Amino acid sequence: MLEMNKGFKPGFLWGGATAANQLEGGYNEGGKGLTIADVSPGGKIRMKLLRDDSYPLEIDTANYTYPNHLGIDFYHRYKEDIAMLAEMGFKTFRMSISWARIFPNGDDAQPNEAGLAYYEDVIDELLKHNIEPTITISHYETPLNLVKSYGGWKNRELIGLFEKYARTILERFANKVTYWMTFNEINTGVMGSFFTLGMRNESVNNNFQALHNQFVASAKAVKIAREINPNVQMGCMSIYATMYAYDCNPVTAAETMEKNRMFNYFCNDVQVRGEYPTYAYSFFAKNNVTLDIQPGDLEVIKENTMDYLSFSYYMSTAHSSDPAHSEGVQGNFFGGTKNPFLKASEWGWEIDPVGLRIALNDLYNRYGVPLYISENGLGAIDKVEADGSINDTYRIDYLQQHISEMKKAVEIDGVDLMAYTSWGCIDLVSASTGEMSKRYGFIYVDLDDEGNGTLERSRKASFDWYKKVIATNGEDLTNKD
Predict the structure, then answer these.
(1) Which residue from 296, 304, 311, 287 is spatially nearest to 208, judged by alpha carbons?
(2) Is the predicted pLDDT of residue 41 greater than 80, yes or no?
(3) Where in the sequence is the signal peptide annotated (predicted)?
């Protein structure tokens, strides 16, 4: 008789996730070059400008603010921050390396030793506290020169430049770091994301050509890693949104299937299964997409598939083919129809814990590789009380509900889940708004959207709660002392 899993496996990787461009600061220190994040302003105008070809990719402090230039000053305060993560009992810390700290222009002949030394110090500090680093090689921070001089990822030359960058950091760190991810939320490129592809208002053809180039570059990074250290674990990373058909109309169901497979499956199919799925070729034909696939591309993709699949989960989405169900969802970047069964966050993101269990089952049954939840969390405005406390019970409730559904997926459904790293474990600059006020962390950073504040760190109520969750390996999720 088969035995069911009893809770999360021993050695489960509890922790938190960040990105260099959202917390490091020091954007022009230590020999670092500019990235696309460095010219992306904060505030409500952020996304509009980044989709506008007429907006110059330059720093314009006379008209805009750039909170990520300071971030939370992790660049100088990483020892203090890592000590607080260790106090919570973190098993892993997901971070990214900024390509432009290693190759300031992306195409430099030699790497920047100061950048390599900085990340070596951060990695060593994590290991000193028995925290496993999980490193994302490219997290929304392509060097600006590669966008302005090469046109972004539609240019095949970026494959070789990324390969050189990946080899440099893997040769330096692959014997210290076991867990790696190649591209953050790579499937946002299906929608033509500037942060992913380094391109604005491109054609569908160019978007998928850029993704193909990233698939090849990713596979080459996997190959390099295994040549250096066969024990490394290489993962792909995508954003997943559980998709529901709004009604039982077969037309709605079919349309939902098509949207689901192109957004949630396509990039994972290529990187985990090692080949383009048949439905992608149908999509390409329908949309007049003709890819420049060079000899050897498909072979390197096939031969260098992923050890695990990582994904972010923040929300689900519903689709309807009926114009009568046309009420959209404020803040839902997948679009879709408002789901009457769900509540939403302050930013209009629909909250669906059960959707996470569905996602885990869907991905594990499809791919059969270990899963790593690399981002999940609630962005909210936190109030500091007169006594300095931050009673973020709303965040505890959100995480409690999601981790409970994770546990069901493991215990009842038999999903092989290896890690959970909540997003923005220490407050950082939001990617979607470029502001500090949308906070996710267990650790509060005294900094506002205009860059005012002491940068002092303090523990929220969720800090002690998550510490208890980790200490009990997810057995005690209660919000009690």
Answers:
(1) 287
(2) yes
(3) none
Residue 374, C-beta contacts closer than 8 angstroms, at least 6 positions apart: 17, 94, 134, 181, 237, 310, 311, 312, 419, 421
pLDDT of residue 6: 80
Taking only the tens place, the pLDDT of each residue in 357-384 is 999 999 999 999 999 999 999 999 999 9
Arithmetic mean of pLDDT over the chain? 95
Q: Is the dihedral of CA 365, 368, 370, 376 positive or negative?
A: negative
The helix/strand/coil state of 465 is helix
Q: What is the DSSP string of 338-353?
A: --TT-EE-TTSPEE-H
Nearest one of 408, 384, 371 to 456, comparing CA atoms: 384
Task: Find all residues with CB under 8 Å of 140, minimum gap 6, and list them.
Answer: 19, 21, 36, 37, 184, 185, 195, 196, 431
Across-strand partners of 236?
Answer: 309
Domain definitions of the chain by residue range: 13-471
Nearest partner of 467 among 455, 457, 481, judged by Cα: 481
Q: For residue 19, give every residue at least 6 positions away whose Cβ sits within 8 Å of its Cβ, in sequence order, or none.
A: 95, 96, 136, 139, 140, 141, 184, 428, 431
Mind telling me the catalytic residues?
A: 375
Q: Supply 62's token pair.
A: 């006379």
Q: What SS3 state is found at 420?
A: strand
Joined tokens for residue 463: 């800090």
Per-residue b or e along 64-94, where b marks 16 or more CB atoms closer than 10 Å to that residue's CB:
bbbbbbbbbbbbebbeebbebbbebbbbbbb
Distance CA 89, CA 132 (A): 11
In CATH, what class is 13-471?
alpha beta
In this structure, are residues 206 and 280 in contact, taking their beta carbons and an 8 Å threshold?
no
Q: Give the type of residue at 142.
A: T
- The per-residue pLDDT for range 238-255, each reduced to its tens digit, is 999 999 999 999 999 999
| Confidence label for 20 from pLDDT (cuts 50, 70 and 90) | very high
What's the token pair of residue 167? 């080899």
pLDDT (0 to 100) of residue 331: 57
Is the per-residue pLDDT at 1 higher than 50?
no
Q: Rounded to an integer, what distance in angstroms lies between the CA atom of residue 415 and that of residue 371?
A: 8
Q: Does residue 34 sit in helix, strand or coil?
A: coil
Q: Is the pLDDT of residue 463 over 60?
A: yes
Long-range own/partner contacts, residues 73-76 (CB < 8 A, 24 or more apart) = 73/25, 73/26, 73/455, 74/18, 74/23, 74/24, 74/25, 74/426, 75/24, 75/25, 75/26, 75/29, 75/30, 75/118, 76/25, 76/26
Strands, DSSP E only, in 122-259?
Answer: 132-138, 179-183, 233-239, 243-245
